[in-house]
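Annotated sample (chain length 211).
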Amino acid sequence: MALPLSRDSRWLFIGDSITDAGRGQCPEAIGSGYVRDIRDWLRASVLGRAPQVLNEGISGSTVVDLRRRWKSDVIDHKPDLVSVKIGINDVWHGLDHVGGGTSIEKFREVYAEILERLREACPGVTIVLCEPTVIWPPAHAEGNKQLQPYVAAVREIGADFEVRGVVPLHTAFNKAGLERPDIEWAPDGVHPSSSGHMLIARCWLACLGLL
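Output written by the structure step:
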C-alpha cells in the first residue's frame, strides 16, 4: 500500500521527550527534534504532496501514559499515519526510581492494546514503530542492557501487527556510537543531540523508503 502522501493527509508522531523536543515552546508546536527534521525534509522533497505533520510527544511519557491520552492525542486527530516512539522511560524510570518504570509484560500488553484501538478507530491507518534509542552513561550504566527486551518487544509487536516499518533506532545509535565516539549522539546518555535527532530522522525516512 502506498504511503498517504498528500497535503491533506495527517502524519502524527507520538512519544516521550525525544519526540516532544520542546514543542510546547515552539510557535509551530513541532519542536526542534527529529519530527521537525522529517517534516522539513518532506516539505523540501515532495513539495505539493507534503503531509500535515503533528507532534504529540510529551516529556516523561511511558507506554501507560500514551494509553491514557490515546483517544485525545491520536484517534481524535483521525491520522493517516501514526509513528510511535516509546520505551525509554518505561526502563529509565525504573532504574532511577522515579516512578518504577513498566514491566516488560505490561509494556507488551499496553502497546498491543493501543495499536489495536488505533486499527479499530482508524481503518487503513499506516503505522510505524520506532525502537527505543539508547540509555548510555552518564545515564544508568545498566540502562542499555535493561532496554534490550523492550527493543525486542517493539520488533515483535511490529511483526504481529504487520506495521509499515519498525525503525531500527537502537541499532543505529549503537553503531554510530561505536563508529564515531567523538560525536555526541546523546550527551546525557538518553536525549539526542541535534546530530542524534538527524540520525533518527534519516533512519525513519529510510525505513519508509523515502530516502
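Annotation: The domain at 10-207 is CATH 3.40.50.1110 (Rossmann fold).
Annotation: The chain has one domain: 10-207.
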